[in-house]
Amino acid sequence: MLLYGQKIDVEVKIKHGVAQNLRRIAAIMDAQATIDSVDSSPSEKMIAEADIIEQTSGDDAWELNQTAAKNELATINALMTELEPLRKFAHLPVLEANEAAQQGEWLGELKERAENFLITQGTIPHDQLHTMRCHPDFKSDIVPFIELINDKMKNGIGLGLLSPHALLLESK
User: Fold this and answer.
1) pLDDT tier at 84, thresholds 50, 70, 90
2) What is the DSSP letter of 24?
3) In contact, 107 and 135? CB cutoff 8 Å
4) Which of 34, 60, 64, 129 would you label with 158, given CA atoms 20 to 30 Å apart?
């Protein structure tokens, strides 16, 4: 999802650059028309020449920025192509895959919270339990995990005997 977000951002920047360039070209055309007009005063022609100089002064930087943005987009696309077969939810569209990944990340977070609270306090605070109950996998994953922790605690496995994430790994 990070790459997808970066891809969208770079694509927008490239399109904005194209629009900026069109405005720049139009300003140059207007200035040139003023220079070419017999009705323009000498001061209007000088201002028009100054406008052209201002508009063309950043040409090299603009070209470099557009090239860099296109290269960045190509790199992002190549990385996305390379990572696509490894994506956990590759069978889902990007936004649905992101939601599925977030669901799994929150499941792990909530399990860790449950473990920490039960080991250190012996209970889960009501607000945390409410958050856990809102998770779609509460009954199927979180409740059995809480029961596993409680069983371990009843059997004398305390904080000193648990390695970080030991129960999280054991419950998978």
Assistant:
1) confident
2) H
3) yes
4) 129
pTM of the predicted model over 0.70? no
pLDDT band at 161 (very low <50, low <70, confident <90, very high): very low
Number of helical (H) and strand (E) elements in the chain, helices listed first: 7, 0
What pLDDT does 93 receive?
A: 87
Using an 8 Å Cβ cutoff, are 110 and 144 in contact? no
DSSP annotation string for 113-134: HHHHHHHHTSS--HHHHHHHHH
- Dump strand ranges (E) for the chain: none
Look at residue 25 and give its three-state secondary structure: helix
3-state secondary structure of 37: coil
What mean pLDDT value characterizes the chain?
90
Domain boundaries, the chain: 2-86, 94-170
* Tokens read off for 66: 């557009």
First to last CA, the chain: 25
pLDDT over 70 percentage in the chain: 91
